[in-house]
Amino acid sequence: MKKILGMGALVTGALLLAGSAMAADLKAPGPMLMKAPPMPVMTWTGCYLDAGGGYGMWNQDHSITTRAGFGTPDTTNGGRGWLGRFGAGCDYQVSSSWVIGVFGDYDWMNLKGSMATLLTNGGFATSGDEKESSAWAVGGRIGYLITPSVLTYVDGGWTETRFDQINLIRANGTPTGNTFPAHTYQGWFIGSGFEYAFTWLPINGLFVRSEYRYSTYQKDDLTETLATGAPGNILHASKQVQTITSSLVWRFNWGGGLMSKY
Q: How many helices (H) and strands (E) does the chain have?
């Protein structure tokens, strides 16, 4: 009997010790959970190069003052054609939705049209072919991120454009020998567009951009050079140019173009 009671006491003691140990285990803190690292998000901060092409249209309002001092009414003519563009710039993302930047670009242009002088030479009305051959622009832009990879923006700034020499011909197609010189016009521009990041491509930093731009240039006076070399009539001309372009953009620091979300 004493043995049975002794064994019962031992079993009871063992159960009590086991219960205490289990209670201690339940109260002990579990293993610490590792906090996941913050997810990176895109940033548009950085610099880029761009190249592309598009279509352009120019119009001009012009009039003539003759050597005798008589003036002609304003006439509107224009030209059309293709252009190529390359440029560079830098952006800074100021918040989760807004981006500001500066840029510059250069256009090779072949926008051809005509200019009718409304004057006569040897009894024939005269006109001349006219071509816009180049332009450059510098300015700034401000953009809004519709999504982290889609930016819409407006831009504006200063621009200059080059129009080639005008060779005047008679209505019967024969040259007069008279010319108006090539000239560079100065003005300003405003535009808008969007830019999309190819985040799904294996090549980092590649974007596509489409933009509409309107440029207007100050009126300038060009003096005609006659076939004899003497000065002739004076042309008063102001230009307006519209372009629509699409370009590929490469952000050359895009591989590190990530910022912490937190």
A: 1, 13
Q: What is the pLDDT of residue 35?
A: 57
d(CA 143, CA 194): 9
The C-alpha atoms of residue 82 and residue 57 are separated, in whole angstroms, by 9
Please say whether the beta carbons of 239 and 222 come within 8 A.
no
DSSP designation for 1: -
Give backbone dihedrals phi and psi of 122, rounded to 5 degrees, phi first: 65, 30
Residues of the chain with pLDDT > 70, as a percent, come to 81
pTM equals: 0.80
What is the distance between the alpha carbons of residues 38 and 180, in angstroms, rounded to a whole number? 65
pLDDT of residue 97: 96
What residue type is 253 in one-letter code?
N
Please give the C-alpha separations between residue 57 and each of 24, 146, 169, 192, 245, in angstroms, as whole numbers.
84, 30, 23, 17, 12
Q: What pLDDT band is residue 216 in, cutting at 50, 70 and 90?
A: very high
